[in-house]
């Protein structure tokens, strides 16, 4: 799996004013207080909300601006949130294979790809189980594999560990870290542990504006705002 060649995002509307650029394989953590605009940013990038101004470009493709809106299904962007949103009538392998099929694999290839994912996410022997037969952490692992099996140009993680207990969250962080394989990623979180486990860079978003950004360790070592100071104190 490879990351996006280049991703430029400029979002400017009533709630948000953000400019960021990602290089291949970058993992960017976005942190900020509740209501800062973190989920709005991901919605703008994924296509779940329309832009009033600014633009979203990936690999030189204009996905959105004030007059253009490519729908989410055509953006090749993966999104994993707190709720895995698995298809309840499908097995774990069926859910992952669905994503591989959407990326152009044949039915047989998609099932083979899905089967290969099961040991990678620490669930060998669980492929024939439906979501209601899996724990919350196991469902999130399947959802991660489904997102990556679609070979996204960009992966968006929106608080994917927040609904899990401490042990399950720590285990899933390790799985995500091991399976990104250079996939360009933005991870939104309230927890500095997520940023430390996954990210190279950190962006602080407050009141819809970027208040600090840079290499993760530099931002945490020299916090500019009370919020970033509080985040740094939890390292």
TrEMBL record:
It comes from the Bacteria. Coiled coil: none annotated. Gene3D superfamilies: P-loop containing nucleotide triphosphate hydrolases. It holds the Pfam family ABC_tran. InterPro entries: AAA+_ATPase, ABC_SmlMolc_Importer, ABC_transporter-like_ATP-bd, ABC_transporter-like_CS, P-loop_NTPase. Keywords: ATP-binding, Nucleotide-binding, Transport. The keyword Nucleotide-binding applies. Residues 5-232 form the ABC transporter domain. The keyword ATP-binding applies. GO terms for molecular function: ATP binding. This is ATP-binding cassette domain-containing protein. The lineage of its organism: Bacteria, Bacillati, Actinomycetota, Actinomycetes, Micrococcales.
